[in-house]
Amino acid sequence: MLEKKCRAGMSQIRAKNHTLTTLKEVMGSKLTGIVLLNSASYDGSQLGPFQGVHLTSKDAQDTALIKDIKKAGARYIAASCHNQAELEIANSVKCDFVTISPVHIASCHPQATPIGWQRFSQLASLAKMPAFALGGVGIHDLATAQKHDAYGVSGISQFW
């Protein structure tokens, strides 16, 4: 099911300084495909027209927040993971997919220590859901990512 949805187009609005209410006012009728909201923007209101939420690694630990997000109409919940402990949390809350990062140095987080493909593969193999490579990767890395147990690649600056 997720595979079909990904082919149809999935994106995330990463506007951490704006609330869900504001984003709905500005973007509501313009959204097409499957669009997830970053959990930093979630303000407790109904999600529509957004279909889900991508949790920060911190928010993935907040079971009350996750319950609220599901009640608000989330069809998809994803999580950012950087280590085994965060991945185990994502497994326990039954996320639909995860991003594992940073694989390489990323321009948006140059201070973060990259995990490389070998560690990515180790973490991805523990995931009970599709894992996307994130951090300094682009579409040109797709074949390499898939050889290391990634479902696909995700990114910001490499795609825009």
Automatic annotation (TrEMBL):
Residues 50-158 form the Thiamine phosphate synthase/TenI domain. Pfam families: TMP-TENI. InterPro entries: Aldolase_TIM (IPR013785), ThiamineP_synth_sf (IPR036206), ThiamineP_synth_TenI (IPR022998). Coiled coil: none annotated. Gene3D superfamilies: Aldolase class I. CDD domains: TMP_TenI. GO terms for biological process: thiamine biosynthetic process. This is Thiamine phosphate synthase. Signal peptide: none annotated.
